[in-house]
Specification:
By secondary structure, the chain is α+β, with helices and mostly antiparallel strands. Helix content is 26%, strand content 34%.
Length: 172
C-alpha cells in the first residue's frame, strides 16, 4: 500500500493556482500568528506576489498537490531577503501547508524540491523567520540544516498580543 507521502506531487506554481494559494494563505492570515499580515487578500491582490516567483531564478514558488485531486496541499517560496543590491545572493524562504495536510510530509517534500531547484543558483544563504511558538516549523527547518541565529522579541502584534520571531539561516 503506498504511503500518503507518495500521493503528493511538487511542481512550480502557476497562475492557475492563484485562487487556491490565496485561500490557503488567507487561512493563516485570519487564524494564526504564522504570518503578520492581518487582513485577508483577494487573488488579484496576491497576483504580483505570484508573478514575482518565476519558474527559474533564485525566487521560486513550489506547490504541492494531491496526485489525483490536484488540490493544493501547500507551497514553499524563496523570495528576496532585502532589497539592497548587496543582498542579491540571499533569500528568505517560507513554507505553508494546508491545515488538513499537516503531518504528511508535505513541508519536507516542498523544501526538498525548493532547495534542489535553488542548488544551481548563485545564492549564499537562506533565512527563515518563524513566529513563536511553532515547534513543527522549527523541526522542519532544523531538518534542512537551518540553525537558530537570534530572536526578535515581541516584533509583531496580532490578535491583541505581541509575538517573537526566531530567525534561522542555512548555507546554500
Amino acid at each position: 500500500m503506498p504511503s500518503e507521502r507518495t500521493e503528493v506531487q511538487v511542481r512550480p506554481g502557476v497562475e492557475a493556482d492563484l485562487k487556491a494559494l490565496t485561500d490557503l494563505y488567507n487561512h493563516y492570515v485570519r487564524e494564526t500568528p504564522i504570518t503578520f499580515d492581518t487582513a485577508a487578500f483577494t487573488p488579484e491582490e496576491r497576483r504580483p506576489w505570484l508573478l514575482s516567483h518565476p519558474e527559474d531564478g533564485p525566487h521560486r514558488l513550489m506547490v504541492a498537490t494531491g496526485a489525483d485531486s490536484q488540490e493544493i496541499l501547500g507551497y514553499a517560496t524563496s523570495s528576496p531577503f532585502r532589497a539592497k543590491p548587496a543582498y542579491t545572493t540571499f533569500v528568505e524562504v517560507t513554507v505553508y501547508v494546508a491545515p488538513d495536510a499537516g503531518g504528511r510530509g508535505v513541508g519536507t517534500l516542498l523544501y526538498g524540491a525548493l532547495f534542489e531547484a535553488l542548488a544551481g543558483e548563485d545564492l549564499h544563504r537562506a533565512y527563515a523567520g518563524i513566529a513563536q511558538p511553532n515547534e513543527a516549523s522549527t523541526r522542519l527547518h532544523e531538518r534542512f540544516g537551518f540553525r537558530h541565529v537570534g530572536t526578535y522579541r515581541e516584533v509583531g502584534r496580532k490578535f491583541g498580543r505581541y509575538w517573537d520571531v526566531a530567525w534561522y539561516e542555512r548555507e546554500l
